[in-house]
Specification:
The chain is of the alpha/beta class and about 300 residues long. It has two domains: about 200 residues, Spore Coat Polysaccharide Biosynthesis Protein SpsA, Chain A, CATH 3.90.550; about 80 residues, no CATH class. Strands 1, 2, 3, 4, 5, 6, 7, 8 and 9 form a nine-stranded mixed β-sheet that branches. Helix 2 links the parallel strand 2 and strand 3. Helix 7 packs parallel to helix 8. It is globular and about 70 Å long.
């Protein structure tokens, strides 16, 4: 046996069925790890021939823990594992393309491709996320939740870090690269993703989770030479917390003219607009406040916490 898939999810409903159906006939072992679904997801997965692992409800859920649970029960002769979130659908030809690439590249541990939003027209937030997935092709520092991975490489570094509530794939890739493995992104269609974000509050929670991931990633691997997510954390804290606090203090304690310093935010939006348009520039700037909230939440707790959900 050479290829398996580990799908993780909780209450994904019809999206999970689409995900599992798209894998039929393309892999040799199908595992679904369920994080306490109440919509019948586990039963539906079993009906489609998947081996289902139900996570222990007494331990806080994380995507990392779910993926490790799937990794732990793979058949011994599986060489490659395709990880998928339950709200994603594998694209035609991806498995074959990615497997051939790993077969020809023994130094590569992880290969990923193009992830697309299924319904970018449904909301501005979906369109922003669709743009977020469009990262450079070639050697990469990290992958996302959907990727084909070499099982031997995963076991070489001990798999995912169970207690991370976000940013588990980039953290894994840091350790893989430190052990001499490489990560690569292909110019190939990999998955459809359904973010299904239609409310500002969902987008804010997702951005907050990103800030938490930045801070925890920098805490774990921020030392030289990696400097993992140090720049991203610093940027979030400066723009989302430091500057607002400075402007507030100067405006209240020194001079009302200091409130004019708040113009730095619309100026930042104008500076970013040529790179991706006005909506993208506006939400990229606004996201720094949510990211700062997530980062500060990590620094205040410094212990495992509940996942930050947006669905």
């Amino acid at each position: 046996m050479s290829l398996a898939a580990v799908v993780i999810g909780r209450n994904e409903g019809a999206r999970l069925l689409t995900c599992l159906d798209a894998l039929q006939g393309r892999i040799e072992q199908l595992l679904y790890v369920d994080s306490g679904s109440t919509d019948g997801s586990a039963e539906a997965a079993r009906a489609r021939g998947a081996k289902v692992i139900d996570l222990d409800l007494s331990i806080p859920f994380t995507a990392a823990r779910a993926r490790n649970a799937g990794l732990a029960v793979l058949d011994e002769d599986v060489r490659y594992v395709q990880f998928l979130d339950g709200d994603c659908e594998i694209r035609e030809g991806w498995i074959e393309t990615a497997q051939a690439f790993l077969d020809a590249s023994p130094e590569i541990a992880v290969v990923c491709g193009r992830r697309r939003e299924r319904h970018p027209e449904a909301s501005l937030y979906n369109r922003l996320i669709d743009r977020e997935w469009d990262t450079p092709v070639g050697p990469a520092k990290a992958c996302g939740g959907d990727a084909l991975m070499r099982v031997a490489a995963l076991r070489d570094v001990g798999g995912y870090r169970d207690n991370l509530i976000a940013g588990e794939e980039p953290e894994l890739c840091v350790r893989l690269r430190a052990n001499g493995w490489q990560v690569h992104r292909l110019e190939a269609e990999m998955t459809w993703h359904d973010a299904d974000i239609k409310r500002f509050s969902q987008w804010w929670q997702r951005s907050k989770r990103t800030g938490h991931a930045f801070a925890e990633g920098a805490h774990l691997h921020g030392a030289a030479p990696e400097r993992h997510w140090v720049k991203e954390t610093r940027r979030a804290l400066i723009w989302g917390a430091g500057l607002p606090l400075l402007i507030l203090l100067l405006g209240l304690l020194i001079t009302p003219w200091a409130w004019l310093l708040a113009l730095i935010y619309p100026l930042q939006i104008l500076r970013l607009t040529p790179q991706g348009g006005l909506p993208w520039a506006f939400f990229t700037t606004l996201a720094k406040f949510a990211e700062a909230q997530g980062a500060l939440g990590f620094y205040l707790r410094r212990r495992p916490t509940r996942i930050i959900e947006y669905k």
